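Minutes, project check-in

Agenda point 3 was the complex the collaborators sent over. CS summarized: two entities, 349 residues total, and the question is how they sit relative to each other. Sequences were read into the notes so everyone works from the same version.
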Amino acid sequence: MVKKRGKKIGRIKGFSIQFMPYSEISRLNSSDRIKKILEIIFGGNILILQGRLKTDEETRLIEDTMAMVGHVKGFKGIELAVISGNGNSGFFGNMKMGFANILTGGDLGAVTIIGPATIVKEIKRNPKKIELMLNK
Amino acid sequence: MVIKVVKNFFKRIFSNMFREKRDIKLGFYGPPNAGKTSLANRICKDFTGEEIGTVSKIPHETRKVQFKEKVEIDYKGKKMLFKMIDTPGIATKIDYEDFLKFKVNKKDAKKRAKEATQGVIESIKWLDDMDIVVIVLDATENPYNQVNITIIGNLAARNIPVLVVGNKVDKKKADIKKIEAAFPEYDVIGISAKYGKNLEEFYESVFKLSKKI
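CS then shared the predicted structure for the full assembly.
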């Protein structure tokens, strides 16, 4: 509970933020990777994943999320954002990142934020900042 | 993924060989309530006299993929045959309570939410079958939405030509420059499907993209 000058100004219900290094999922296949992510989200956690999923895995995550809405009690979907650090690194920068990604399996310069829609109301983003708006 | 790319490569080669014999599949993708059906309706009405689907202020009005075949677009004397594919809006969350705000009763709201989730899955499954995709965005909304980025990324990985359209430019809050800044690799066109504004430029871009398939 947050107090300001003795007055209650708001209360956020319990949630936890879980950080996961990409190495935790790097050896899993796409299905198991998405399953692992969704299990964390179903537990009411906000996941901060080092790196990012492949583009087809991102769509698969949306598909699987939609398949679960209505089937998992209280689950209404997810909020998702990927912050990629290699946007303006130029041709050689991208090539370097490309090799690094082949070796490691994911874009490790990126960060993926995924939260359950019941907790995360909105992830506002623009090129300069990212804001997590939580449900009260 | 590799199999998909190879499959698409051969599909494209064969489709080019027989291009004259079939319609170009033109898909309309984007978030809910961006105006995908309004734009598809405008085109279908102009060239066939019939609409493709109903529009509403309530999000997720389109919950099933809908088609209009043999739509011949005539632009500056050039004609091209399209199969128009209007898809349900893609979202990462759907809450039936959001529909209650539009005076939909609880039972219908739950039904709508269930159908909407299935619609999102159907939309994604159709991505593979498109020749050209028009991403329809609401120009009054923030374009930096992960769903938009993910869908465009998927289309790029499949080598499917993409045109980004910022709809609702008739509204004061519309900001096409913001969309252009968000997707610098793509052609971005500001239109108003409701009032038919800037459709000439839209048709020109679609014809240009058709040459890439």
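Noted in discussion: The longest strand of chain B covers residues 66-75.
Follow-up: revisit at the next meeting once the mutant set is ready.
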